Amino acid sequence: MQYWLAVNKKAGKENNDGDVYWCEKLTAAGVDPIIPCVFDDLGWTQSVTVGDCIIAAGGDGSVNRAAAICRERDAILAILPTGTANDFARNLRLPSDPDQIARLIASMQWRWVDVAELNGLIFLNVAHIGLATLPARYVAPSSKQWLGRFSYAATLLKRLRAQRGFHASIQCDTGYLKGRWLSISVATGAFYGGGQQIPQASANDGQLDIVAVRPRSLLSLVTTFAIMRVLRRAPRKHSTVVHLKSSHCHIQTSNPKTVTADGEVFAKTPINVTCLPGSLAVVCEKIVET
Length: 290
Hints:
Blueprint: E1 3-7, H1 18-29, E2 34-37, E3 53-58, H2 60-73, E4 76-81, H3 87-91, H4 98-107, E5 110-118, E6 121-123, E7 126-130, H5 134-138, H6 141-147, H7 150-159, E8 166-172, E9 175-181, E10 183-187, E11 191-192, E12 196-197, E13 208-213, H8 218-231, E14 241-246, E15 248-253, E16 258-261, E17 264-268, E18 271-283
Parallel strand pairs: 1-2, 1-3, 3-4
Antiparallel strand pairs: 5-6, 5-18, 7-10, 7-16, 8-9, 8-15, 10-13, 11-12, 13-14, 15-18, 16-17
Helix pairs in contact: 1-4
């Protein structure tokens, strides 16, 4: 068994000297042998064998790239959450302390988690249409370095007044919705948007969580999400937020809209999203259930 370490040195607030820093931490925990590699040159992936571990240091976008390689080569994914939002890492309740995460990887405890397929590509955490795509599209790298996940909230607040919503239909196993929306999110786990919880969700329940938000005032939106945080459930159907669970969904907009997934620009609508249950092995002790 070999450990392949891929570091995104531009992710998050700190550089930590990239692979040198993490090689020291991992080696001290007993992880060996470690082979440093980069995503810009994927020639190394052909040497990954069944049961190897690919360690991704970065945010959700970096982890997405590593996950695709793991699924292709039957390898196990390990995550060093050094990105801005790290929502996928929250689904696994990974420790933030470098020494603790290194020891967890050395223990090689792992679980099967779901991923989602979107128009032939996979994402691990969440796909967005509408307002929630703005941080991925417009947050400058310098803002991420200084503000961390709060840079996402700052961007949303800055642009919220200009957003009047868009017309879209959502077709899934459990229902059909049509109307004007401020944002539509399709998640595989319990967290998105820098820590916002999705009620009654987990990264291994075999279901997508579709969260659609109607255009409302800023006060109404803040109140609604506060209620969801406290009560751990969405308000009644047809209010500000609609929450559906399904294994598949099709989203069609009146005009093509940008779709982001795992913090990267991914596609344009229309989109088909399907949950692929238990299709990725990932190092963690337990999957979070909200």
